[in-house]
């Protein structure tokens, strides 16, 4: 069989492959000190609460990570498994933070498809989803709604 006819491993869903109300669970990942340092270094989020262990002036004790890091890690899971090669654009995002994520926490998420609207061009669709992010104690730490443009067949 020619290589162009083989199924591609890791290929994301086309919008026709998902249904409104369908839910998925991501893998889990433990947030490390290295994750924190790399993220704040590349983004410039060099706040004392993130760079100074035991920072006295912070409202959170321990090693909190930026919510943006938590979001980015979950989006990485979604990209690698659900929309790789089919996700065309993030159109809108509404986010709420419920609790801090700390170095050493293990995060994961559920993704629920809440809407699918085919567009008039190129077989694409606008796909809405609600994402709930949890830690290892099953505490909800973040929720967000995403509107993405997905490819079709």
From TrEMBL:
InterPro entries linked: FAS1-like_DH_region, HotDog_dom_sf, MCH/BMMD
FAS1-like dehydratase domain ranges (all copies): 21-143
Annotated Gene3D superfamilies: Hotdog Thioesterase
Pfam families: FAS1_DH_region
Transmembrane segments: none
Domain of life of the organism encoding this protein: Bacteria
Coiled coil: none
PANTHER family (alphabetical): BETA-METHYLMALYL-COA DEHYDRATASE, MONOAMINE OXIDASE-RELATED
Protein name listed in UniProt: Acyl dehydratase
Organism: Cupriavidus basilensis
Taxonomic lineage from the root: Bacteria, Pseudomonadati, Pseudomonadota, Betaproteobacteria, Burkholderiales
